[in-house]
Amino acid sequence: MLSALAHLGGGPPDVGAAAFRRGMKQLGHTPEPPALLPLDQCGLLEIDAALAHLNTAAPLLKRGFLEACASVVAEDGLIRAEEAELLRAIADALDCPVPAFIQGV
Hints:
The protein is mainly α.
């Protein structure tokens, strides 16, 4: 999921990689987080499977994950409509409130 969000932001690959690392750090993965998945491994089937798995987590874990997703999207300081829509969809699928800074986008 974090890889998909990092790729969705567009821009040079190093920006997406930095966004991914920021999200992994938010989740507590330091100093050696898993690698950013290639774009071809971040399709709808993979996102759906990840959401199904995450939906079994405790509410606090879901919230922490959603915050990590939000930090990936916010890495470049610009939240595009597609990124905000995907964050809203993730929040809805996990029955979590949308992060405050996304609500107005």
